[in-house]
């Protein structure tokens, strides 16, 4: 295995992915004040870009990471993000739901929330990973922010198992990641991101969609190659 692959599959990559997934999860949740503060102090864009650069992704010169709210008063930023999030992702009495943030809406012809099979599959996946979805959660199990947070959790478990040189557990976790990514996250998120790019009037969410799409492509390669390597199939086209 060449040095590129050795570096690419270093256990630190799992930790970086965990951080990226957490950033994206927070980004697709309603923008509370703590999140707005990260944008205001400039850490959101720079840290996310640095994490992607750590994965050797070609994002150094991308305009996606420029802060669209530079020199904008904090109160105005909070209002702008809240209004745009509501317009895109929350169904209100006076407007249609432009970008459903729920996997279920992309898995049935009616576009309804809480598809029984989807919710059952998700709660089973969470349970198999040792998690019980809380009954009092303000988000549904198939909300994009929840699914991204779950992938962050699995990536953290992968990091720990790699750090402990536990090959069997690492293989199990990567199988969980790959299955969840393929069956759930990557089965509807590309369409959701296209809807954001189509309907968003705000640079933050349109740029978020582009950044997420770039990461999804990288993540698909990572999981495919990780699985092949652990199964001792060294034919891999990551580099």
What's the layout of helices and strands?
Layout: H1 3-8, H2 11-27, H3 33-40, H4 43-54, H5 74-89, H6 116-128, H7 144-163, H8 167-199, H9 203-230
Helix pairs in contact: 2-4, 2-7, 3-5, 7-8, 8-9
Task: Characterize this entry briefly.
The chain is mostly helical and 239 residues long. Helices cover 64% and strands 0% of the residues.
Describe the structure.
This protein is mainly alpha-helical and 239 residues long. It has nine helices and no strands. It is globular. 33% of the residues are buried.
* Poorly predicted tracts of residues: 1-8, 233-239
CATH uppermost class: Mainly Alpha
Q: Rg to the nearest angstrom?
A: 18 Å
What string gives the helices and strands in order? HHHHHHHHH
> What is the domain tally?
1
- Under the CATH scheme, the architecture is Orthogonal Bundle
What profile does the largest beta sheet have? Answer: none
Q: Give the overall silhouette.
A: globular
CATH H level, superfamily name: TorD-like
Q: Ends: how far apart?
A: 12 Å
CATH names the topology as: TorD-like
Total of DSSP H or I helical runs spanning 4+ residues: 9
Q: What share of the residues lie within helices? A: 55-70%
- State the oligomer: single chain
How much of the sequence is in beta strands?
under 5%
Chain-averaged pLDDT:
87
What structural class should be given to the helix and strand makeup?
A: mainly alpha
Beta strand count:
0
């Amino acid at each position: 295995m060449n040095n590129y692959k050795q570096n690419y599959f270093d256990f630190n990559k799992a930790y970086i992915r965990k951080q990226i997934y957490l950033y994206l999860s927070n980004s697709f949740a309603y923008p509370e004040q703590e999140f707005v503060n990260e944008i205001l102090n400039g850490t959101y864009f720079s840290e996310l870009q640095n994490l992607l650069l750590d994965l050797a992704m070609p994002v150094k010169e991308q305009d996606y990471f420029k802060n669209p709210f530079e020199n904008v008063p904090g109160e105005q930023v909070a209002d702008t993000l809240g209004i745009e999030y509501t317009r895109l992702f929350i169904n209100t009495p006076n407007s249609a739901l432009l970008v459903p943030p729920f996997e279920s809406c992309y898995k049935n012809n009616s576009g309804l929330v809480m598809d029984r099979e989807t919710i059952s599959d998700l709660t089973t996946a969470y349970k198999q990973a040792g998690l019980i979805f809380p009954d009092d959660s303000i988000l549904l199990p198939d909300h994009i922010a929840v699914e991204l947070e779950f992938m962050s959790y699995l990536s953290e478990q992968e990091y720990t198992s790699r750090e402990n040189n536990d090959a069997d557990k690492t293989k199990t976790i990567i199988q969980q990641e790959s299955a969840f990514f393929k069956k759930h996250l990557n089965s509807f998120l590309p369409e959701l991101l296209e809807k954001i790019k189509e309907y968003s009037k705000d640079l933050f969410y349109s740029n978020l969609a582009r950044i997420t799409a770039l990461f999804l492509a990288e993540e698909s390669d990572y999981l495919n190659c990780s699985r092949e390597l652990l199964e001792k199939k060294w034919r891999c086209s990551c580099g």
